[in-house]
């Protein structure tokens, strides 16, 4: 491809990518009109069915109805509501449905956003709910605004029915919304919605795949591809077109999906349509006018442009250190011709996708630049290659997938996580060689007090909530809910291999730390025998409570 050296202005492809940028006035996410381009970019998500069901079977019934569409900033509420307004325009007009698309906006300079919402809610006061006047309302509202609205409603003392409904759904306090039947109110929540699916026995994402396909596919209905082809015919090409070509590669797309899913699971990032489309813009076009940056660099070097790019940069393969990577580095370093060695290692099929270096640029690359070039391209084409140390993450992914499947069809069993927890809970506060005892006073250097613990996990209770795995444990007939995320999984694996915990590990695994403290607290309440360990003597002792109340000290080993 012949690339223009003088920047990126004036291409049809950039014109379309500008529609994906959050900062652009022509952005899809800043558009209030549901035009043909917005229709094309629409991606059906699970929540769409819930909203449509609520509109068809709840909103259009007799008496007063409100549907609250609740979520976080940028998760697609406004876009989905615009889609519904377009699809049901005739029905909405016929039923006089009022749409309040953004509860952070006010309809008057003298009113706050909350004042505007209160004005709209006036037909739904306790005294007005049962009058014979018809009223239909849909409000898209962020969780923070809903919290503030609830406090305001409480102070007014005439919205008790609405207040009680919002409280009963637990939408503001729990990860999962409770479906509370109500004649007047309905909440549909984006909270807890996951972009992750199990497709053909593999963790994947229909949402990410669909979004990539909307932009990066050789489809005659794809306006981005048509713009690319128009620029190609007019020979109006620059680095954006090369990045676009690279992203048309299905192997590269698989790696993008891998990193997006990992950002969700490992860092619990909420990736909305707005965030995702802006990410496509950043890695293809970039924000610095005149800056030429190709995909292997644009995706890993721009950590300061967005939260998502910051997390993606943590997966940069040049930060990875394995024996296999070291061996390849030595081969490249000692090669007579560095460029030839790298190109040979990558192979012609891969190089044909990443052929953006000019001969002069290639000759001027240092060993480090060539090595980084190799690692990043190899990763983008084949993230599962053995040279990259992703094994622990892939293990977690496999456990997550199995629990996800069991949760869906109630078949099978997954024991690996429970076994890992069973092997490590006694080591959390330090390990003295007793697998059924947890040290209580881990800061005491001479005499350790140990609590005998036998937690009983319910395998069938394992379930997925967002990026986390939930397990119900029982001890002394008391239920303890344990939440395990990927960072905790990593710490438990290290602990199982003889690692000593640092304070940062406890902060990253606060749910597990609380779990250990609860186990100790419950067992200690009914303990008739106190176990002690003398660090100097390296011996265990037991204090046995006598029936008259005194304790007897016995040496155990």
Describe this structure in words.
The structure is a single chain. The chain is built from 25 helices and 15 strands. The protein is an alpha+beta fold and 557 residues long. It folds into four domains: 136 residues, no CATH class; 144 residues, no CATH class; 59 residues, no CATH class; 162 residues, no CATH class. A hairpin with a 5-residue loop joins strand 14 and strand 15. The protein is flat. The N and C termini lie far apart (77 Å). About 1% of the residues have low confidence.
Query: What's the helix count?
Result: 25
Question: How many whole angstroms does the radius of gyration measure?
Answer: 29 Å
* Distance N to C terminus: 77 Å
Average the pLDDT over all residues and give the rounded result.
89
Find the structural class using helix and strand composition. Answer: alpha+beta
* Spatial arrangement of strands, main beta sheet: 7-8-13-14-15
* Percentage of residues in strands: 5-15%
The biggest beta sheet is recorded as:
5 strands, antiparallel
Count of structural domains: 4
Outline? flat
- The strand count comes to 15
Low-confidence segments: 4-8
Helix proportion = 40-55%
List the helices and strands and how they pair.
Blueprint (H helix, E strand, L loop, with lengths): L11 H6 L18 H6 L4 H14 L5 E7 L5 H11 L1 H6 L2 E4 L12 H8 L15 E7 H14 L3 H10 L15 E5 L7 E3 L2 E3 L1 H10 L7 H11 L5 H9 L2 H18 L5 H12 L10 H7 L5 H6 L10 H12 L3 H9 L1 H6 L5 H5 L3 H15 L9 H19 L6 H9 L12 E3 L7 E6 L3 E2 L5 E3 L2 E8 L2 E7 L1 H11 L6 H6 L1 H16 L3 E6 L4 E7 L5 E5 L2
Helix pairs in contact: 9-13, 17-20, 22-23
């Amino acid at each position: 491809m012949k690339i223009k050296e003088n920047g990126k202005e004036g291409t049809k492809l950039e014109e379309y990518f500008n529609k994906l940028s959050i900062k652009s006035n022509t952005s899809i996410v800043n558009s209030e009109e549901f035009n043909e381009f917005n229709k094309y970019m629409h991606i059906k998500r699970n929540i769409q069915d819930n909203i449509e069901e609520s509109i068809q079977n709840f909103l259009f019934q007799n008496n007063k109805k409100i549907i609250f569409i609740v979520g976080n900033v940028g998760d697609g509420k406004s876009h989905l509501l615009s889609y519904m307004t377009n699809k049901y325009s005739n029905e909405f007009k016929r039923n006089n449905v009022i749409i309040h698309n953004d509860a952070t906006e006010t309809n008057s300079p003298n009113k706050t956003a909350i004042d505007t919402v209160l004005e709209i809610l006036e037909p739904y006061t306790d005294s007005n709910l049962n009058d014979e006047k018809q009223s239909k309302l849909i409000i898209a509202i962020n969780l923070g605004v809903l919290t503030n609205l609830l406090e305001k409603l409480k102070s007014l003392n005439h919205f008790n029915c609405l207040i009680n409904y919002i409280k009963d759904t637990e939408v503001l306090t729990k990860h999962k919304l409770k479906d509370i039947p109500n004649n007047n109110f309905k909440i549909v929540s984006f909270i807890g919605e996951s972009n992750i699916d199990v497709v053909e026995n593999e963790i994947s994402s229909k949402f990410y795949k669909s979004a990539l396909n909307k932009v990066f596919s050789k489809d005659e209905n794809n306006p981005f591809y048509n713009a690319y082809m128009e620029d190609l015919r007019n020979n109006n090409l620059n680095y954006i077109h090369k990045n676009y070509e690279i992203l048309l590669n299905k192997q590269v797309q698989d790696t993008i999906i891998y990193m997006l899913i990992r950002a969700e699971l490992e860092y619990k990032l909420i990736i909305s349509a707005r965030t995702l489309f802006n990410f496509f813009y950043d890695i293809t076009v970039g924000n610095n006018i005149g800056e030429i940056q190709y995909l292997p660099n644009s995706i890993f070097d721009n950590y300061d442009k967005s939260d998502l790019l910051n997390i993606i940069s943590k997966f940069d393969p040049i930060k990875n250190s394995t024996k296999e990577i070291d061996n390849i580095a030595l081969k490249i370093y000692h090669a007579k011709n560095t460029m030839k060695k790298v190109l040979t290692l990558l192979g012609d099929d891969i190089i044909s996708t990443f052929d953006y270096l000019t001969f002069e640029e290639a000759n001027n690359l240092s060993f480090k630049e060539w090595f980084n070039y190799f690692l990043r391209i190899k990763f983008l084409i084949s993230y599962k290659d053995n040279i990259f140390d992703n094994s622990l993450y892939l293990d977690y992914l496999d456990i997550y997938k199995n629990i996800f499947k069991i949760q869906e069809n109630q078949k099978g069993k997954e024991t690996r996580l429970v076994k890992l927890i069973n092997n490590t809970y006694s080591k959390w506060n330090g390990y003295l060689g007793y697998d059924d005892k947890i040290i209580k006073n881990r800061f005491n250097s001479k005499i350790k007090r140990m609590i005998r613990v036998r937690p009983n996990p319910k395998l069938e209770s394992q379930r997925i909530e967002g990026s986390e795995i939930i397990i119900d444990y029982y001890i002394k007939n008391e239920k303890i809910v344990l939440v395990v995320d990927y960072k905790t999984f990593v710490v438990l694996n290290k602990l199982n291999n003889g690692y000593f915990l640092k304070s940062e590990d406890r902060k990253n695994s606060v749910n597990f730390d609380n779990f250990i403290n609860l186990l100790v607290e419950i067992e200690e309440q009914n303990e008739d025998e106190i176990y002690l360990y003398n660090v100097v003597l390296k011996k265990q002792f037991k204090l046995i409570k006598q029936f008259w109340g005194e304790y007897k000290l016995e040496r155990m080993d």
